[in-house]
Design brief:
The complex is a heterodimer.
Chain A lengths: L5 H22 L5 H9 L3 E3 L4 E5 L5 E2 L1 H14 L3 E4 L5 E3 L7 H10 L16 E2 L14 H11 L14 E4 L13 E8 L2 E8 L11 E8 L3 H15 L10 H8 L1 H14 L10 H10 L13 H9 L1 H10 E3 L5 E6 L10 E3 H14 L4 E3 L5 E7 L3 H10 L14 E2 L14 H10 L3 H7 L4 E4 L13 E8 L2 E8 L11 E2 L4 E2 L3 H15 L7 H8 L1 H9 L3
Parallel strand pairs in A: 6-7, 7-8, 16-17, 17-18
Antiparallel strand pairs in A: 1-2, 2-5, 3-14, 4-5, 4-13, 8-9, 9-10, 11-12, 12-15, 14-15, 18-19, 19-20, 19-21
Helix pairs in contact in A: 1-2, 1-4, 3-12, 5-9, 6-8, 7-8, 10-11, 14-16, 16-18
Chain B lengths: L13 E7 L5 E4 L5 E2 L10 H12 L5 E8 L11 H8 L10
Antiparallel strand pairs in B: 1-2, 1-4, 2-3
The chains are: A alpha+beta, B alpha+beta.
């Protein structure tokens, strides 16, 4: 993974010292909250419903064991013993006191981490495929380009005060696991005539106005991608709606200008860049960054493992977990393990300090020191030998991390909701946990197959409800929580927005309604191989809607 | 501050609430002028006294952040349009494992 050079280290250390002074002045009352708010937000500090929240950047979701151990230490010493992994592949601590945050940031700096640009109207953490560098189906490892984009976008003076926040995602696999078409900019790495380049999608997003991104350019050669991104950002910076927060995202600009005119403006800006303005990325520098992401020196293994096969025969629970939580690795004899942070009864995406330490230890012992965070709020051990999978599973299961549910119905993306968030209108976590209970039988859940439920506590859609196969949106009606159900969303290469199917339901009615929809699917599917979303798209929404609102 | 703040009539009973500047914990102004993390100890104010209490709170930047009026009944129970949010602020919340 990327390692800080002397400039990175100094930059982060100076930023911590600067914020320490700002916090001291706030605590002394010499800075008002109005003055302090933009400063704290630039350092990832929010004031939420019950406490400050600190959001820490995990660039493209990659962590070393030392970094994960440090996060565990912070959870234990400064929070309530757990942290919350987010859909931006970051982590949030929900109970950190402001007076302690400079110390926390100093501890993070020691392991090359920070909270810069995790908030505010700037370019946020660039996300990518959580199996990057390991996935069988990827063209190449996208992380080096994520790192180049990170370096370009961090403290970029021209883009520090954008009309609104800005999110970029990169994938290099045909099956899009990074949800690039619901990002402000989505980049799909392609190759054409031996040249690596990017398919560029712009103007996707969720929130109160969900939009699927527009294909703006089918191929921008890698040598030009930063210039092209600069052109996109400049057009947005110049014409983005700063007069209205709710119309300030780039998706509104693209929609209002229209696809053709928007593309014309970006291409004109791109063409107008003078040579002196162009970002001349030296090949040596690109190669240097690529070298940080060289594949680990995996020991040679045979394609199959007798140990692995024997363990599956001996333990049906392990066998089930291998069917759901393993992903094909590009090297024979290896696999990528999803560590589910969605055990029954736990807020999705939460991990305790001791669980983080278990995962860090497994990464050191078996996983070549590589850990990822997925946008679905799970952790990944990308390089595990099949021979070692039984031991990894035993350790995970003993730590409460053995749930066999990756991409299954209990593996929900869920925002913090009104249990934590100041913006939320309704709770997300309790309703998600109640839905989980309906599908608690592992055999039943496995039979249902892949099905994504995403839950948000308000229209800001942090729980990605627009792109869940089933979306759940919490609303407040005169002091009472109701939940609207959406059907048909998806975040992959066939990205689509779910549609609200009817009036909101009371919280207690949601699990039964979801159960009826799932049972309707099971009755209608052509075979167990036909996934929920495929049956839904084949039959249309109406019969599912009828099942949803049928008398319980 | 981004949550909705309904305008309350002068005679409406109200409490003054905000967040501890040091810790971020929810605070309520007690009758004796101290700040408490226990919502059951909140003071109920109305009219000019309420305005004076809020004005004084707004000057305590290093102690309390973003103080505002919250609607309550005469006996101090949370009520009004923001009652769901304010009830959540006053309650223990989810810890790991879903327990309060």
């Amino acid at each position: 993974m990327y390692r800080y050079d002397q400039f990175d280290a100094r930059l982060v250390a100076e930023r911590v010292a600067q914020f320490r002074g700002q916090v001291a002045r706030r605590l002394a009352g010499t800075l008002t909250e109005d003055e302090f708010k933009p400063l704290r937000l630039q350092n990832g500090v929010y004031l939420q419903l019950h406490a400050y929240m600190l959001r820490i950047a995990i660039p493209y979701g990659q962590l070393s064991p030392a970094q994960l151990r440090r996060l565990a230490e912070i959870a234990r010493d400064y929070d309530r013993g757990f942290g919350h992994f987010t859909t931006r592949q970051n982590i949030q601590f929900n109970w950190v006191a402001l007076k302690d945050i400079p110390d926390v940031l100093a501890k993070l700096a020691e392991v090359e981490m920070h909270a810069v640009q995790t908030s505010g109207n700037c370019i946020r953490n660039t996300t990518t495929d959580h199996f990057a560098g390991a996935a069988q189906d990827e063209l190449l490892d996208p992380r080096a380009w994520c790192e180049i984009i990170r370096q370009w976008s961090t403290f970029h003076p021209e883009f520090a005060f954008l009309p609104r926040k800005f999110k970029i995602a990169v994938t290099a696999a045909e099956h899009d696991r990074a949800a690039i078409r619901v990002h402000d900019v989505g980049l799909h790495i392609r190759q054409k005539d031996g040249v690596t380049g990017f398919e560029v999608w712009v103007g996707g997003g969720q929130g109160r106005t969900p939009v699927i991104a527009t294909l703006v350019n089918p191929f921008v050669p890698e040598a030009q991608i930063l210039d092209y991104l600069e052109a996109i950002m400049r057009v947005y910076n110049r014409f983005g709606r700063r007069d209205n927060k709710y119309k300030a995202r780039i998706k509104i600009l693209v929609t209002e200008l229209g696809e053709a005119e928007y593309i014309r403006q970006v291409e004109a800006e791109f063409a107008a860049q003078r040579d002196a303005e162009k970002i001349n990325l030296p090949k040596a520098e690109v190669d240097r960054i690529h070298a940080y992401f060289a594949p680990p020196a995996l020991a040679a293994k045979s394609e199959s493992s007798k140990l692995f096969e024997a363990a599956k025969v001996a333990d049906p629970a392990f066998a089930r977990w291998t069917r759901t939580n393993l992903h094909p690795h590009k090297v024979a004899g290896y696999t990528s393990v999803t560590v589910s942070l969605k055990p029954l009864g736990v807020a999705p995406g939460d991990a305790t300090d001791s669980q983080m330490e278990v995962v860090a230890g497994l990464s050191e012992k078996y996983g070549y020191g590589d850990i990822r965070v997925s946008h679905a709020q799970n952790l990944i051990l990308p390089h595990i030998a099949l021979d070692d999978v039984p031991d990894v599973y035993k350790a995970l299961d003993a730590a409460g991390l053995g749930a066999a549910n990756e991409s299954r119905i209990t593996d929900m993306i869920v925002c913090p909701g009104l249990d934590f968030c100041n913006l939320a209108n309704a709770r997300s976590i309790p309703v998600a946990l109640e839905v989980q209970k309906v599908f608690a039988d592992p055999a039943y859940e496995e039979d249902i197959g892949k099905l994504h439920i995403n839950v948000s506590g308000c229209i800001n859609a942090c729980g990605h409800h627009h792109v869940g196969h089933i979306g759940i949106l919490g609303v407040d009606k005169k002091g009472e929580e109701f939940y609207q159900i959406l059907l048909g969303g998806r975040a992959d290469e066939k990205a689509a927005l779910g549609e609200i199917v009817g009036p909101g339901l009371k919280a207690e009615d949601v699990p039964g309604a979801i159960h009826r929809v799932v049972e309707f699917y099971r009755a209608q599917r052509t075979s167990p191989a036909e996934k929920f979303i495929d049956t839904l798209e084949r039959l249309g929404h109406q019969p599912f809607q009828d099942a949803l609102y049928a008398a319980g | 501050m981004t949550s909705v703040r309904p305008k309350l009539k002068p005679e409406t009973p109200k409490a003054v609430t905000g967040w501890s500047t040091a810790t971020g914990r929810s605070l309520w102004l007690a009758v004796d002028g101290s700040w408490t993390e226990d919502a059951s100890r909140l003071g109920v104010f109305a009219g000019d006294e309420a305005e004076a209490r809020l004005a004084a709170s707004l000057k305590q930047e290093g102690i309390v952040t973003d103080p505002y009026f919250m609607e309550v009944t005469a006996d101090g129970r949370i009520t009004g349009r923001e009652s769901l949010r304010e009830t959540m602020r006053a309650q223990p919340v989810l810890a790991y494992g879903g327990a309060a």
